[in-house]
Structure formats: structure tokens, C-alpha cells
TrEMBL record:
It comes from Ornithinimicrobium tianjinense. GO terms for molecular function: antiporter activity. Residues 129-402 form the NADH:quinone oxidoreductase/Mrp antiporter transmembrane domain. Residues 820-943 form the Na+/H+ antiporter MnhB subunit-related protein domain. It comes from the Bacteria. Pfam families: MbhD, MbhE, MnhB, Proton_antipo_M, Proton_antipo_N. InterPro entries: CPA3_Na-H_Antiporter_A, MnhB, MrpA_C/MbhD, MrpA_C/MbhE, ND/Mrp_TM, Nuo/plastoQ_OxRdtase_6_NuoJ, Proton_antipo_N. Keywords: Antiport, Cell membrane, Ion transport, Membrane, Transmembrane, Transmembrane helix, Transport. One of its GO terms (biological process) is monoatomic ion transport. One of its GO terms (cellular component) is plasma membrane. This is Na+/H+ antiporter subunit A. The chain crosses the membrane at residues 77-97, 109-127, 133-154, 166-185, 205-230, 267-286, 298-317, 323-346, 367-390, 410-435, 456-475, 503-525, 571-592, 604-623, 630-649, 655-674, 694-714, 754-771, 823-841, 847-867, 879-902, 922-943. It is found in: Cell membrane; Membrane. It is a multi-pass membrane protein.
Amino acid sequence: MIAVLVLGHLVAAVAAPTLVRLLGPRAFLVVALAPAATVVWAAAQLSGATDPRTGGLVQSVTWVDDLGIDLAFRLDTLAWVMTLVVAGVGALVLVYCSHYVDDDDHGRVSVLAGCLVGFAGAMLGVVTADDLLMLYVFWEITTVLSYLLIGYHSTSSAATRAAKQALVVTTAGGLAMLVGIVLLGHAGGTYRVSELLADPPTGTAVTVGVVLLLAGAVTKSALVPFHFWLPGAMVAPTPISAYLHAAAMVKAGVYLVARLAPGYAALPAWQFTVLVLGGATMLLGAFRATRQTDLKLLLAYGTVSQLGFLVVLLGYGSPGATLAGLTLLVAHALFKACLFLTVGTIDHATGTRDIRRLVGIRQKMPWLALSATLAAMSMAGLPVLIGFVGKEAAIAALLDPADGWWSLRGAAAVVVVLGSVMTTAYSVRFVWGAFTDRARPPVGKPGPPRWHRPTWVLVAVPGLLSVLGIVLGVTSTTLEGVVEPHVVTVSHVADAHPVHLGLWHGVSAPLLVSVGIWLAGGLWWSAQARRPVEVPVPLVPFDAGRTYHHLMRGLDRLALESTGFLQRGSLPVLLGTIFVVLVALPGSWMLLDRTDLPDSVTPADGPAQVAAGIIVVAAAVLAARARRRLRAVFLVSVTGYGTAYLFLLHGGPDLALTQVLVETVSLVVLVLVLRRLSGRFPDDPTVMTRRLRALLGAAVAVVLGGATLVAAGSRVHEPAGAGLAPRAVDYGGGYNIVNVILVDVRAWDTMGELSVILACATGVASLIFLTDENLERVRVGLRKVRGERGRPVRREGQEPSGMPWIPGGDLVDQRRRSTILEIVTHLVFHTIVLWSVYLLFSGHNLPGGGFAAGIVAGLALCLRYLAGYGAELRAALPVMPPVLLGTGLFIAGGSAVLPMFFGSPALRTWIADVHVPLLGDVHVVTSLLFDVGVYLVVLGLMLDILRSLGSGVDSQIRAEQSAGADRTEEVSR
């Protein structure tokens, strides 16, 4: 069921753009059903998840069978608590967004809706994953989605800079975490989290692996020295901050610490990392928060401080600290989400978050002021809220450190008390700055903030979160019973006294310390209120954010210098360097070691092969000697077609077909590119240079030929090809071995190649459509064509000229128009498309498949483009290439995941022979769905190339010609 819930979030994320177009901002209410359903399901699983005898609910589906990787989920006590936090707060934030966002930009709103619900699904995967590799996959999904969410305002340089900063920092930690996962999994002989905790491995490699895992947690949870990315991420809309930085993204690192603590909290390296970095983060974040005038930045630095506090507690290693940490984890999600959403409502209503400008908010929004005050009280640890219960438990757990006050744990206790004092101070500062009425000093002489009354949802959602804080505070003893199964697993450090949750334990030392914290915090705030400071004073002698920017600048400079030194912009130099290394290293090795050469070599298998070889060699030599670009392109194409003929001679019709199609596409692309280049190659090498190049080319040929001979002579096992034919039939249900390998045997490789194709298409398009104006022009053209389907496309007021053989023919300049080509296109276009469909469906048993079929369909589009240029291409297929690329990748991925719902490994093929009326017996394989995805991805790539290098370059040429004509006209005047 957990996998179904994760998939439900994915479906909601994919459907979000369509829902936003149909429903506007109310689409957030629909996608909120996914996390809401997760909350309901998790609540129903309370008894099973918290049962210590079973260890929680376990679900496992084989993912990559050969590698032993499973989609293993486990809902135990910790995962249950985190699931409620992630899904519950996520659902409320999505409901809040339905009244927060404007209905004027469906594109950005759909991105927000899709990414938020997708993030909730990824976080659900993180907290329930029982396999470290699967946890890492979900972990990195949250990294990518957080980049998109933080950079929501894509036209803002500050937003893009903050998004890149968060991406770089968290990705660096993620890479370190991946190395740690491999080390830990290798040492333990398994990647199952439950097994690694039940029987923790030991050794230096394990210690290094755990520290690297903590590096991922430190960067994700914005601990010192990587804390700077979180305040920078406040450029995102406030609902994003409320979710990512209160209940989701930053909680991933805290969760990882809590998850690994039962097995590894006793390691000295763990204690040093967790207590030192967590304590430093708590102090630094709290100090910075006490000096902010922007409510959102105040909460951001407060979040940094609280994250350090949580890491100290959950990594401390004692049952009492773990109990307090889990309680404060829930409390922090509630009060921080409430406060962030409160700031969002204030900003939405007034247009400012500056406490120096806010006046009269309490009178205008009394219920919002009440809920925010309750949340701030919970943050400060005041009764009767859940924050008070958790903080008092934390003080009780840390007051009597087992190693003495002069130990690391003793220092952690002092840091927690001092950090709590500053937490009280900035909690008071938040309420005082947002809701009290007083004289405001002018700040740059701004006008009064605008005001409009927010909808009831923008007040009710924060109010509900604050009420939950009271309810959990009153019923905290019940919460203790729920989390007890996880608490007892963390017992590396014994508690000096039993720690329990509750509102009243009598007049005790923790209560007296709490009272002292409140008084000291009030005095701290009072002292700052009398002397307001607008610029925070650094607590440490260096600024981590500035250090990061200097480091990035240095890397950019290093990349620039390295590129300038190595990439001279000369293709002969680059190729020459590669070829010299190829000849020097493998060539010298083959000269010194001749033991693997075969005893006899057959020069050729027949005259046809000799003839093909002569043609290929001759074309290659002539291409090297050609001084005109177009001639060289055609000669190189001859070598490709000759290679296809050799494939055909050796009994590989599928390879031959694919090679011919790829060579044709390459020829088209090169011809399109040549329009922007001069007719001749610019360099004119000397005779000596030509001879050296010829000698190097011959040496490369000899080395590669020798490598082929060595490879053939080094074989020690029987060729695998003999067993592929029967296995292709039994395993994949097809007689085309190549296609079965692509979509069945090595389908994971094909999935990776599809991603590469998508990246290639994105790169090609980005080189042409560098500005939003270019993309918008394409979108407008597509919308116009969709509204005129079936009718010839003409300019406004234009009369038809003859028979409209193609819809866009009348838009072509008469001097460039070819009636014969239009007629041929009209006659053969649909036939070519039909042939591509035939290749798609027959490719499992005959030459073809999704890749070849997609290229054929792309060549049909190429014919339409050559006949009518950009307008004809839009009329032929009026969709944006990313739609085809994304749909194809989604179908391929869906076909991979589908078998897992029926207990089979991913990408398992099912074979069936069914009788269809009129058609007879039909052989059906489910891998056809995967091939359909390949077909759409390749077609999307072809469309992207034609849109970019074809019609995109056409637009640039027309713009240059128009600019040239204007300049000529000005000169003539």
C-alpha cells in the first residue's frame, strides 16, 4: 500500500497541469487528496506500525533482481510519525495554496502544484524506505524538486541564485551520502536499513560510511557550515517555505539522524559530528534570528536553530533525549508551519513582511494573531503547548550528562539552554513585531502597506495547526506511548533519571530551568527592543555564505582557465590530442604484448564485403581531403551507409535498418547546420600538416584494427550469441533478438538512454531558444495552428494560390516553393507514418522497434518541414517537443513499474496469445508499452531538432535579413 500511495502522489503531480487549466487554483484541493489519503491510511495503521513484536508494516517488491535491489518499505514508529508530519502538513499547505496563489499564470501555478505534491510523495518514500539505495533515490528527487520550488520565480535572479545554491550544497552532501551508503552496505552485506540497524557492522569503513551519511544529513538540514542556503531559499513563495522548511526537506536530514541513531550513535565520530555541528547551528541560527526585521528571515534563522536542536537530541544516544527529540520534531512541524503560513497571510494582505512597517494587524486579523501567538508560545516552550512538553523533556534528559559537565555532552546541555534563551527572545520578537501597535520609524520613507482582507482559508489553516499544538500538549502522555517502541531502541547512553512527557511533573529542576530560560529570553528581547539593530553581527569570524560564493567564483575561474588552456577552439588540435593518446597508450601495449593475437585472420568473407570496404575506405579518404563542407558531409554519410550494408551482409537486418535511418537523420541535421556556416573549411593546412594528419589517421586505423584482432583472440568463453535466440523467445516472447535485448533483457540500459535523449533534446533547444520570447512565439504559433486544424494556413488577408497540397504551402515564399515536393509530400507522408506504426508493432519479431519507428516518423516530419518550413511543421504535429518527450518517458517508466503491482520485478514482460475477431491470433507482449515510450521519445527528439535547427534557425535568418534591410534603408536615406 505504501508504494501505491507514493505512486498516487506521482499521478497527482503529473495531473496537476491539466487540473490547474481546468480548475485554476482550486486544483490544489484535488491534488491535496493524495497526502490527505496518506494521513487517513497512516492513522488506521497505528497499531500495526507501533507493534514492537513485528517491527512495523513491511512491504517489499523486487526492483532490480540481478543487483538484489528491492522496493522495500517499512512503516515503523519513526516512519509513522514522519508520515503524519509530511503528509498532514503537506495537505494543509496545499489547501492553503488554493486561496494564496493568483489565477493569472497557469504555467507557474501548475509547476507549484505538481512539485509540491510530488515533493510530498518523495518525502513519503524517504521516511518509509527500508533500502538505503532506494532511500537515496527518493532523497535526490527531493533535491531536484526543491530546486524547482525555490526557483519558482524563474525570472528573478535572486530566486535562481538561491535555487542553485541549495542544489549545489545538498547535491554535494548527497554524493557524499551515496559513497557512505556503498561503504555501509558493503560492510554489512546488505542495504536493508532494518538489517543494518539490527546487526550493525563495525570497522573503519563503517565509521567513514556513517560520517559520509551524516554529511548528507548536515547539508540537507542546513547545519553549520552549510546553514546559509536555507535563509537564501526564503525568496520562494511562503507556502513553499512553510512546507520545505518546517515539515519536509530539512526534516529529511533530521530523520536520517533519528533513523541511524539506534545502531551508530555510540560511535565517537558520530557524537562529535552531531553534538558539535548541531550545537553550533542552534546558537548561530538563534543569534541571527534575534536580529532580523523580516518576519520570514526571522523564521528562517529560527528554523536553522531548531534543526540544530533536533539533531543534538535525536543523535544524543539516550532514550530520554530521543523521546524529547521526537516530541519537538512534531512540535516544530506544527508551530513553524503555522508561523510561516501566518507570514504568508500577512504578506498577502499587506504586501510587506518588515516588522518596522506592520501596523494594526492584530485589530484587522485577531484570529490570525491568536493562532500565531500560540505557535510562538510553543516555539518558546511555554505551557500548555506541545513545545513546552518537548523542551522540558529535553532539559530533563540533558541536565545530568553521563560524562560530566566538562564533557561533550555537558557542553551540549549548556548550548541547549543558551540556545533556548535566544529562542524565547526571537519568539517574542516575532509576536511583538507582527502584531503589537507602536510608533514605526520610517524605513526609506515608504508609503503605508496596502491592505486587503484575506480569505478565511488563509486564517483557518494556521489556526488549525496552532490548535493541534494545544491538543498534543494536553494529550502528550498518549504521544509518549506511541513513540515508545522507537525510543527504547536508542540506549547507548543511560538516562540519569527517567524522562516522561507531561504538562506537570511538580516543581522540578527542568521546570525551574525553563522559568529561567523564559526570564532570560524576555530580558534579551527587552535589551534588543531598546536598541534595534538592523544589520546582524556575525557570531563567527567568517561568513559561510560569502565563503561559498568565493568558492564558486574560484571554481568558475578554474573552469574558465582550464577550458581556455585545453579547449583552444581548434577541432584538429582536440582530435589530434585524442588520437595521439589512443596511438601512444593502447598501441604501445599491443606492440609489447602480442600473445592474444589470433593464429589466423580471414581478410574477407566474400567479394561483396570487399567491395563495400573499398567504397567505405575511398569515401573516408575523399572526405578527409574535401575542402567543402557539404561534400565532406555527403562523403561521411557514404561511410555510414556502407557500414549498414556490412551489417546486412552479416545477417543483421535490424542493425542495418537502424544504421540507415540514423545516418539519414544525421545527414539532415548536418545540412540544417551547414546553413549557418561558410561553404568551405576555414583552415588551409600546409603539405607537412596534411602528411602528419594522414600519418596519424593511418596509425589510429592500425591501432583500432589491432584492437579488434586482440579482442577476438582474447576470448576465453563461448560467444553468448548462440543462446540469445531461444532465450529471446522464452524470456521476451520475440524473435528479433536486438529488440528483445533493448526492451526486455537490457531494458534498464534503454531507460538510461531515453534520459540521455531527453537531455540531448533539451540541450539542442536551449542553444536556439535562449529567450522566453522565442519560446512564446513557438507556443503562439502552435495555438493558432490547433485552432485551424484541417484548413490551409495563410497569412491574414492572403488569397489561396492554386491547389493547397500542404496546409502551410501558401506561407512559403514563392521563390522557394516547390510544387513537386509538395505533391510528393502530400502523397507519401501518411504512408511513411503508417510504416512507422508497422515497424513499432512488428519490431518484436521483425526488423523495427520503437527506436527505428520513431526515426521513420521523424523523417516524415522532416519531409513536411522541407516542403513548407516551420508553418508546415507546426501543422503536421502541433505539440511542443517536451510533451512528446515527457509522455514517452512516462509511458516507458510506467511500463517498468506496472509489473511490480502484481508481485513481479520491474520491467518483467508478460506474454499472451489472444484471438481477435477479424484479425485472428495475435501475439501480445507487454514490452510493447515500453517500445511505445521509446517511439514517442525519439519522435520528440526529431521534432525538437526540426523546431530548433530548422524553423528556429529560419527565424534567426529572417531576423538578420530584416535587420540588414533596415540598415540598408537607413543608409540610403
